[in-house]
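Fill in residues.
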């Protein structure tokens, strides 16, 4: 059974940092690119970042230079380091496989507010 479990969210002040984690199970993790997405209240889910099987990374313009995606194939985990957070980064963050998407996990709430 394929499963995605996100964690690491919380409440942070503008300019702060958070590191999100996503543990994937049920597939050969190292064989898949991985994506992070986010969904703000009342908005559609949007793509945030991708890391390929060889470690190449791609980012949405809105987070480029502030967020860093990485992966640990030994732990079946993908990370999202978020720095210089802004109130507009407030959302529920999700991960998923870059193709053959799995059922969505519960996500992790990130709230950026003073």
């Amino acid at each position: 059974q394929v499963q995605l479990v996100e964690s690491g969210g919380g409440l942070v002040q503008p300019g702060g940092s958070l590191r999100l984690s996503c543990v994937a199970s049920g597939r050969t993790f190292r064989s898949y690119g991985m994506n992070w997405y986010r969904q703000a209240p009342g908005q559609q889910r949007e793509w945030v970042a991708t890391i390929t099987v060889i470690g190449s990374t791609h980012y949405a313009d809105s987070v480029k230079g502030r967020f860093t995606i990485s992966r640990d194939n030994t732990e079946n985990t993908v990370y999202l380091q978020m720095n210089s957070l802004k109130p507009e980064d407030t959302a529920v963050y999700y991960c998923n496989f870059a193709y053959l998407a799995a059922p969505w996990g519960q996500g992790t709430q990130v709230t950026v507010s003073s």
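The chain has a mean pLDDT of 97.
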